Structure prediction request, 538 residues.
Amino acid sequence: MNHVDLKEAITKGETSLGIELGSTRIKAVLIDRQFETIASGSYEWENLLKDGYWTYNQEDIITGLQTAYREMKQQVEQNYGVTLQTVGSIGFSAMMHGYMAFDSKGELLVPFRTWRNATTGAAARELTDLFQFNIPERWSIAHLYQAILNQEEHVPRIDFVTTLAGYIHWLLTGNKVIGIGDASGIFPIDEATHNYHPSMVKQFDERNAAKGFPWKLEDLLPKVCLSGEQAGELTEAGAKLLDPARDLQPGIPLCPPEGDAGTGMVATNSVKKRTGNISVGTSVFAMIVLERELAKVYPEIDMVTTPDGSPVGMVHANNCSSDLNAWVGMFREFSEAMGFNVDSGKLFSVLLNKALEADPDGGGLLSYGYLSGENITGIDKGRPLFVRSPESNFNLANFMRTHLFAAFGALKLGMDILTENEQVAIDSILAHGGLFKTPFVGQKVLAAALNVPISVMSTAGEGGAWGMALLASYLINKDQDESLESFLEEKVFKDVEGQEITPDAKDVSGFEAFIQRYRAGLAIEQAAVDHLVENGRN
Prediction:
């Protein structure tokens, strides 16, 4: 589409807007009807450990939302000379899971508790046993039930429980709804009805009947919607909140809000059965669309859904790139102390590429990048740990390779359950995330870790906000009865190219040697956590 046509399309509102609140960045992406990005904006933020909970300030949520939108709007004005007043459709996504509880006046009762918290172990175990369905510690229902077990004073006052994406959507439309993918991180979904599992809802209420709460569970949860359904319109108050300059007009249709796992599946064309995608960032998760139910309940495997309701086996590791990023940050400090101002992209590129020169197994080094607790390996608290023996080959190349290996260590343990225990068939895995901005290295390491070919599309850098914009576009641009799978396959990704890397035998055997150390050393990691906790260093 040429410049003149784009300007006309923007003026007429023939565009779609996706905004995603990720763990380190809030990003807004505006796309045209050919699914190309027209403009984008972003806001960097970080979670806080406050009163024992990982959280984000409520004020930062709004500030970040407005900043990302404003930057995107300014790009439109600078590039096309148009003041953005309307778009064809909007969608919001955010980090899945977590807990946002509100009273009847719409006031947040406790600070937002994110997916990163590992404080709900007792609740998750009890609910898993009750439902005979794995309830991960991150899920909203685990947070709610843990608050009940803790007899927290806010529980009787709860009127509404939702995720971060559901909260933003509610603010802008007044509708208490949620996309089915994000809903599957709130409470188990019944595949037949595409709604919360009724017998499990009943079991939950029966478990808490004697406590005398003035609510039933179904009264608290948002309504579940499928992709392609209209989930509300931008209200006048919502338009003012998103665009305080008051240029944006109300009445724009919104698609269901989704979690970042769902937008990752969309952004990598991974919503059909036997496909999978891996999203790499602060956390790392693999989403494999299943042909059948798993034979057993595994605490390491979440059962969630695609945005159109297909069952998905999800392996979610709380920790991925945070510790690696911290080490790169220290190398940046060193370079600055030496008088060199190094571009961040070049610094990452140089350090990550050093890993290609390393010994296949990382030279006998060992790392656990656990900035927070890790459910897959049973570590309750975050205690990053780097270990080497006198016999280890300690150099920069091995150091970097070890930290890359460690970023995928917990993920590997969870994926082994799907591929080895359950014999899940996977035709293709696509990866996306900031780590792949440095070409080849992360993809090569991930292929070795999982021993499967890993593809990265040319659109991989677009990320979840682009995936959310695609879901918004699907709302207004799909043909009658056109499935999300067909819309993505035949329209969005028809001519998109990707690069596939197959596992190298040396890398695979090297990672296997590393993962054996990783498994064996978990006792060391747990002992380090226990020692620090016992000595009061929380």
About this structure: The chain has a mean pLDDT of 93. DSSP finds 19 helices and 22 strands in the chain.
